[in-house]
Amino acid sequence: MRYQISGKQIDIGEALQTHVKSELDVAVQKYAERPTDAQVIFSKSGHEFVCETTVHLSTGLTASAKAHATEIYAAFDGCTEKMEKQLRRYKRRLKDHHRERAEPVELLGASSYILASDQHGEAEEPETLQPMIVAEMETKIATLSVGEAVMQMELSGAPVLVFKKEGKEGVNVVYRRDDGNIGWIDPA
User: Fold this and answer.
1) Which of 131, 133, 129 is nearest to 111 (CA)?
2) Is the pTM of this model over 0.85?
C-alpha cells in the first residue's frame, strides 16, 4: 500500500510516520484484501490535533475518517478506530449480500468543476447567467450496484454520490435526504 503522510503547518517526524504505516496497515489488512493507497493528513485546530485519513480500496471504494485529540498519536489512533469500524461494516455488508465482485469496479472519466458563488449578496442582476468556473478537475464515475453506491456514499461521508448503474446506460445518483433516508435518482 502506498502512503502519503503529511502535516499542515506542522512537522511530521519519522517515528510518527512509522507508527502510522504499521498501525494503519494492520487495521486495513484485517478487513480489506487489496488496499491501494492511503492519505493521512495531520493539522492543528486550536489546542487539538486533527487527523484525516482516506484509504482507497482496489474495488474502487474509498473509506475516510477524521478524529481530534490533544495528542497527535491519540488523534491518529481515534482516526484508525473509526476507519476500522467503517471497513468492518463494509465487509459485513458484502457478506450479507452474498456477492463477491470478481473484477474491479469500472471507472469512467469525467470532469468536475467548482463554480463561484455570489458571496457578496449583491442585489444587482449579473451581466451573464453563465457561472464563473473557479477550478476544473478530473474525476472518476464508478459502475456500481445501488447497494454498493449507498455503501460508498456512507463510507466516504458524502451527502451525494453519482454512479453508473451496472448493466444500464447513463448516470444515477444516491443522496441523503433531510429525513435521514437515502434517495435514488434513476433516469429513464
Assistant:
1) 133
2) no
More confident residue, 124 or 17: 17
Q: What is the pLDDT of residues 36-68, one digit of tens each?
A: 788 999 999 889 999 999 888 776 677 888 999
The two beta strands, 160-165 and 171-176, are: antiparallel
Domain end call among 96, 125, 143: 96
d(CA 34, CA 32): 6
Backbone CA torsion sign across 116, 117, 123, 128: positive
- Reduce the DSSP state of residue 104 to 3 states and report it: coil
Is residue 24 very low, low, confident or very high in pLDDT (cuts 50, 70, 90)? confident
Percent of the chain with pLDDT over 90: 16
130 in the same domain as 54? no
CATH number of the domain within which 71 lies: 3.30.160.100
Q: What is the mean pLDDT of residues 89-105?
A: 62
35 bridge partner residues: 57
Residue finishing a domain among 96, 128, 149: 96
Cα dihedral 160, 161, 166, 167, rounded to 10, equals 70
**Domain of 91, in residue numbers:** 2-96
Indicate which CATH number applies to the domain containing 161. Answer: 3.30.505.50
80 shares a domain with 137: no
